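Title: Prediction job returns without error message
Component: structure pipeline
Severity: low
Priority: P3
Assignee: unassigned

Description:
Job completed but the reporter wants confirmation the result is attached to the right record. Sequence as submitted:
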Amino acid sequence: MVFSSFEFLFRFLPIFLFFYYTAPKRWKNFILFAGSIVFYTAGEAEYVLLLFVCVIVNYLFGRIMYLNIDEGRGPRQKLLLILALCYDFGVLFFFKYSGLTDKLPLGISFYTFQIAAYIIDVYRGKVPAEKSFVKLGTYLTMFPQLIAGPIINYLEVRVSLKYRTVSLADFEDGLKTLIIGLGAKVIIADRIGLLWNNIQSIGFASISTQLAWMGAFAYSIELYFDFAGYSMMAIGLGRMLGFQIPVNFRQPYVSKSVTEFWRRWHITLGKWFREYVYIPLGGNRRGKMRTIFNLFAVWSLTALWHGSDCNFLIWGFSLLVLQGLEKLFLLRFLEKSRVICHVYVLFFVPLTWMAFAISDVGQLGIYFTRLFPFIREAAATVNQTDYIRYLWDYGPLFAAGIVFSTPLPLWLYRKVREKWAGSLIVAVILVLDVYYLAVSTNNPFLYFNF
């Protein structure tokens, strides 16, 4: 079951909200926990027990660890932490990297990081271990962000798990955010994604350089609006349930450097790596070379988190090189520029996304010969006018992707959000959402693959 489906929007969600809003306050966590299990079961019934066991194991380790926290964080607490993390990451490793299973459980990368953060914070003494199994289960399995984030720290929702209310204004604001997020997915991401699908069907060796660059930009726009759209929908659903789910994107394509880009893209994942890997390794406090080593550790783990295929390692290494160069000298130059810095980001980031998107390294190499035909002389003469038809078909979507990647539309919407014009904008988006859901085949969110 995906958010961008009639089944979720017009069957599961209304029925769930009826039970959730009519239930007494003391039952709301149970309703949300049970509803989230039903939601997960509808999409991945064979792995729902795995999710449930994850809650049980970490609940027990957290409670045992915390009961003895008064004795200090000694060898016993450290052993419990290590055992809990071995279980969490061991299960993730088995399904993702062992090669013994063909299917990856939905959301396992996300909920593993989320529960690992909880158990580490309990060990550190930042939060007390949750006494209520239902509350911890609600925290981990909350369906708005269970499958693809944003990754939420327990500390961010601890109070809301105990006391929360949903006003009519909260519901309205959450519903609007849900509708706009769905629009980002079905109006822009899914439609411009058809261009990337067409290019894959044609074959990389048979496209012109112009079409290759169009494909790189199309995939960059698709991935952004697909994932940012999902995150907006999660935030909107969370608001409708009384939770403040953290923002996951802040217009990353307006960044002035790759370093800034990754502060604005998938913010909660970056925060996780910064808090639980980068800073414990020393961050940027021990000189430039140690900082680069720490970046190497972070990007190696980030690449492995996305997958074990070689293309992810190439993707992670390319980002490490770019950020390493920025740390050494390039950032000082980029921060002084007003145009070159944006050209730099919009040139290199789509190239890194190609390494992310194309799993076959041989095909990736072919694609780069199309992007840069001087690499292989014969590549310069292939289908030189094939891009014209696609530019005509997808030009408006490229324009929409560019405009809505900037802060301007959000700034304008906030100006009229509380007026009739704001309601009209949301109503139009809703009509377009329903239309494209009706005429399009079901297209799951891209990050469901991770």
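Comment from assignee: result matches the submitted record. Residues 170-256+337-449 form one domain.
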